[in-house]
Amino acid sequence: MLPPIQKSAKLANVCYDIRGPVLEKARQMEEDGHKIIKLNIGNLAVFGLEPPDEIVQDMIRNLPQAAGYTDSKGLFAPRKAIVHYTQEKRIAGVTVDDVYLGNGASELITMSMNALLNAGDEILVPAPDYPLWTASVSLSGGTPVHYLCDEANGWIPDLDDMARKITPRTKGIVVINPNNPTGALYPVEVLQAIVELARKHGLIIFADEIYDKVLYDGNVHTSIASLADDLLFVTFNGLSKNYRSCGYRAGWMIVSGDKRRARDYIEGLNMLASMRLCANTPGQLAIQTALGGYQSINDLVAPGGRLCRQRDLAHRLLTEIPGVSCVKPKAALYMFPRLDPKIYPIEDDQQFAYDLLAEEKVLIVQGTGFNYPTPDHFRLVFLPHEDDLAEAIGRIARFLGHLRRRYGTD
């Protein structure tokens, strides 16, 4: 009998629970005829949040000319538009040659790690994080080291914890701002302190800014790469969230700051960009129009706008549930509520997500799926229309009521 074919050992520490085993269970239930309310993923189109029409029309018009490969870094016009965007964000010294287009920012995040890391090299990653970062570090042979974000301080990075975790093996710091999964937006003084830490230790800053326009209550986003030019920054963004275009897979990566010291690393990025030939051309064609067009995201996040209303409703309904607290998001599309362990002594939060799905047909992602160390949080996407959101959180409230009675904490 032939031996089983096993997955690569490189995948031993790779995990992506946003599309993990609980989602597989939800798919099985759907096949059995159950209707599931999905609060697990920021896939805007399925909730009726469509891309701006001018982007769609521009792609349609240009599609007949989109069958060929482009330059490995991408078409000139969208890269030039991104250079103009970096100027708006006050990131100094960016040229077209410093911009890489990708099949979403996700591809470029993995590329940035593959080009840098040797076995045992360390990258500081927030906890909680967007799990692709931890997975990409591990897949690239590196070691993700998680610094804590402080829930009591609005989920701002714990700078002392970050500093303690820097070792001679540390190569860089990942900053996810605005933050997924917490919805936090980092103050300038915190970003400046992170820059100072990176400067002191000669580290690269990897800045995930994919939600930089999804801002509530008049908040303003500062690109960390705008705060210095004497260290290396690699900044990621794209159309998926700001322009409701997840499926177009149109993302970009910008290298800025001290590029002279990073010549060999940049050569590695260029090599990997060439190996995948190019990003998809139709997605590239949407970028210039998106960045230069009417910014309809501003209407959605403004007071009374759809995303703002849904955030407010979800936060109010969640925090009315006994034993549930939640830092109100300043940005992005998610919240990361906490279940008081005295009231909900949950030991396995993946099982909690399974049980919620089985009993109430609501799909969320457990907090440990975002590399958070304790099983007392979950992430909720507040993208459904208000009626659907109220129904979903009502089901969560009912399930948590059952748990309180089960635990004898009601």
Automatic annotation (TrEMBL):
Name this polypeptide is given: alanine transaminase
Pfam (any one): Aminotran_1_2
Top-level lineage group: Bacteria
Protein family (similarity comment): Belongs to the class-I pyridoxal-phosphate-dependent aminotransferase family.
Record's keyword annotation contains Transferase: yes
Cofactor requirement: pyridoxal 5'-phosphate
UniProt KW Transferase keyword: yes
PANTHER family associated with the record: GLUTAMATE-PYRUVATE AMINOTRANSFERASE ALAA
Species this chain originates from: Tepidimonas sediminis
EC number(s) given by UniProt: 2.6.1.2
Entry keyword set: Aminotransferase, Pyridoxal phosphate, Pyruvate, Transferase
SUPFAM superfamilies: PLP-dependent transferases (SSF53383)
Record domain Aminotransferase class I/classII large: where: 35-396
Gene3D superfamilies from the UniProt entry: Aspartate Aminotransferase, domain 1 (3.90.1150.10), Type I PLP-dependent aspartate aminotransferase-like (Major domain) (3.40.640.10)
GO molecular-function term, one example from the UniProt record: pyridoxal phosphate binding
